[in-house]
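Reviewers of the previous submission asked for a worked example of the structure-prediction workflow described in the proposal, so we include one complete record here. The input consisted solely of the amino acid sequence. No template or homolog information was supplied to the procedure at any stage.
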Amino acid sequence: MNETAVLKRSADRAKSILVEAEALLQSPFIASDSRIKDALAELRQAAKRVADNALAPVRIGILGEFSAGKSLLIGSLIGYADALPISELPTTGNVTAVNITETDELQTTRVGPYRIHFLDHAGFRECLGFMLNEARKRAATANLRPDLIEQLKAVNADAQDALSRIEVWASAAWKSTNNPSLRFLIRELAGFTRAYAMCGAGLCTSDEPIEVSAEVVRHALSLPIIREGIQKLEFEQIPRPSAPISSRPSSLTAQQLKDAFALIRMVSVDVTISRYIWDLTGLTGTDRFCLMDFPGLGSEASGVRDLYLCLRELEQIQTILILLNGRRPGGSEGSRLYDLLQEHRPGQDIRDMILVSVGRFDELPLQNDGLEETLRELAGSSQTKTTQAIPKPFFPTDEPGQAFDSPTLGNGALSVDIVLHRLPVLATCLAGAESIATAGRPDRITLVSPMFHLRFLQNKNPGLSCGSSDFFANNQLAMEKAAEITALWGKLAERLDSTTPSRSHPRLVPWLKDFAADGGIGQLRQVIVKHVKSHGITQRYKDIAQQEEQLRKSLRALHELLPTEPSQEPYDLDALQVLERELRNLAAFYSDLGSHLTLDSQFTIMRDEVSFSLADDLRTEIAWRVFQWPAWESLWLSVRNGFVSSKKPTISSIFSDIHNIFDVSETEPLPDNSEYFFDLFEKTLKGLLEYTVYLVDQGLRDWLIQLQTNVAPSRALLLPLLERPSVDDIVSKSGVRGARGLMAALRASIDPLSLKKLLYPPEGKLSDVQWEIPATNATLLYPLARGDRFNTGKVFGWAQQFANAPEEARPPKHHSHQAMIVRIRDHLADAIYMEMVQVLSCVLDQVAATLAAVFQEISDRLSQIMMSQVMLQALAEPPAASPDGAPESEERAMVLSRLRYIVSLM
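From that input alone, the workflow returned the following structure tokens.
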């Protein structure tokens, strides 16, 4: 079994345990302060962790210092520059999940919607405890007054008065210290607790995110710009939320989001990217793909909260991309990040999880000591020619034992060692990257310029937009400079390509070539995909294995608390297995049925024990209604020798009575132009709208009758269980969440005819539902010429006006042939049919979509029942009565049986 299949099995098992644990936690027969209750709560958390993470998308975390260019790097990876907020100031401040899906179309990257995930109440308390611990450390280092240190130690994040006590302490501590580090944390702590006090009641009640527009995100999700020095700032100047949020809103304004900024756990955004920008076909089997943008290090505007959020999310990261800042080579940020990651993954070597990119490589500080001119010289682009010998480098020569012979640039001789000696800033930059990456894996290092890559993408794909117009307008000069510097590195790589690679930096030439090609982003994409394929899923597998071990510990802890005396199971295990199998088959049946309906929404109707498609029945009905128009009788009675004639025949007075019988021209005018049929056409069209909906109603009825026959075996097995008078009472006491809805779905699954009452208004008639029916316009649909104030439309050949006209003014004789009656009639009937068959198709699609959604809901709920041992036992025969006949004893025995079932899942 491959790793992906094992992960799915782990998720299914964890979900089963989670369902049982949540149901038992609701049982009144487990005391709220009992050790079993605590063990169940711990078990629920462990099971939820495995269930949520086993099939979560593969995540690539991007870490770096503030302003290293993480957001811009992500923008270049997905082909849209400012998909995330970008600024030279530290602006991100939150973990941002970029959920990527791929499309085969060549199109501009689609970004959105954005969703804001807030800390729940438990997450807030955990984060507050984390911040308080850090505050205690900084307070001791800052030599804060002893009484204030003791006050801080006494604050408990879980206590009800924690917020008020923190506010009092923060005010006193602020006035008692000038220590910058402590003051920054006091300000952060005050903002965090004030946001919770004002907005927590409305935003921290649910794990469900709130969707917001891109405009709100850009205006609200920026860290505040500090305009006052921390030493001069008064405690009273620390901002408070402008208005409370007491109930959960369906949407958020920019001001509300700013007020609640400190409570944001994560921002997620959906991104659809063209395969021509980033081909992810190699990731088949990894389900989804997610880039995680983490807050940077070193910002004074945020810190401890950000660190907590980072550590929380980093537990679920399989691949980590550390982005170094090319503007400041040789900095310690990369090492600090590595140490932080290793510290919070004890016992695990994280080096194999790490990729390294040197961001803003086009902004390597070459201005100092004339290094940019040196680069031009080494690349062969300098205007100044020199034959000065290059000093001996500090690096070993290419060949062991060979003395270094200083070549001159004038004769074109060049080597990697010479370049690194002449450009020490490059050597420092590479050394910083190699110190973090896995030893012997230089292929996991890339040099990148997001700015140049975006310019490259825009030029390569003129029809696509690779960023907003404002972005390209504001960064035009930066892009031109990036292109100039990138070209120099490319020329240098070409000159070095023919030399023997240096042992110390054998990958320098490939790095520079990849960088010069497109800013290095194309190579970075390949490195990420390769690492996810070879390492990401494996790492996920290892992480879930550790979480499963914790789940097993929780199960063992629960097992140790149960009575040692085994109790006789009151349920027939064979019967439970049969019930579970039947539910599984029934769930699969409805799932397949819903999928089929979305592909083929055709129903049939029975007429005299013969099945007809609804479209055929509709055609027959249209023909019958059109053929009943009185105009046809008038025309047929006017046929003389095969031609329609408006003249009355010359006839003997002897036959006058017969003439009066057949000649109806005096009571019914002879239709002689196309305008005559319009009112009949319009009236028939309107009448057929009602008939079409009625037809679908009948087709649905016949279809559900057939469905009733299909589920008859399941009905025979399950109906006796559901008809027991006690079954609803037993299920209601089971503690299963949503048990009433589960039972309703189960009953509907074996009685499909009842679905009409569930789906449609009281009478269960489809015609009572307000479907979206396409508007019909008789004027536009009418197939014959219409009259206006200038003419009378199409005049037929038998019209009276032609009867006495000269021969040359009459239409051809065949225009008045009796076949023209049939032709006009069929033409009108076909026009009505073409319109009504579209109406029929539209209504059928809506009915099918409604049914498919209901069937999928039934399938999902049947699966919930099937996975819940509690529900299965509740549906089976009730437990035997205890000796004293006390119902309470029976239910306690049932709870104990369920507890034993959970621990059996170890």
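The chain has a mean pLDDT of 79. We consider this example representative of the routine output the project will generate in years two and three.
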